[in-house]
Amino acid sequence: xxxxxxxxxxxxxxxxxxxxxxxxxxxxxxxxxxxxxxxxxxxxxxxxxxxxxxxxxxxxxxxxxxxxxxxxxxxxxxxxxxxxxxxxxxxxxxxxxx
Length: 98
Fold this sequence. Notes:
single chain, about 100 residues, rod-shaped, about 0% strand, mainly alpha
């Protein structure tokens, strides 16, 4: 999350610099609503929402890797051996541990 906030602040600063340098080039955009500083402050929150999908995707991948490792340990657990069937557990779904 700190990386996301840092990235949002950096992109807001770059957006403010772009706005300050190219205000006269884009005459068709109404830049007069807010001051440059206030607009950059709002941009922090705008970019925070736009970059928001970065964290959950990486967490989903990490969770799936952990599930895969846990299913391996479930298959190798000697306490889960079935005397009746004479075999160990066969994990066919990574969601078994949930």
